[in-house]
Design brief:
It is a single chain. By secondary structure, this protein is α+β, with helices and mostly antiparallel strands. Strands 1-2 form a two-stranded antiparallel ribbon. 57% of the residues lie in helices and 25% in strands. It is elongated, with a radius of gyration of 17 Å. The model has no long low-confidence stretch (mean pLDDT 86).
Length: 53
């Protein structure tokens, strides 16, 4: 995250074998992470309540 704060970068290249395969945003990474956490929390809550089989 240092490049983002130091240079105000919002997007970074996605590289594989020295080839550009895409461009990703920090916002996209954060949104994806939050979405995955919400699903996990819901599943754990259902497990605790005994609602999930």
């Amino acid at each position: 995250m240092a490049p983002k704060t130091e240079y105000r970068v919002r997007h970074l290249p996605g590289m594989h074998d020295s080839r550009l395969i895409g461009v990703g945003s920090f916002a996209g990474v954060v949104k994806s992470s939050i979405s995955g956490q919400k699903v996990m929390i819901e599943e754990l809550e259902q497990d605790i309540a005994g609602q999930r089989g």
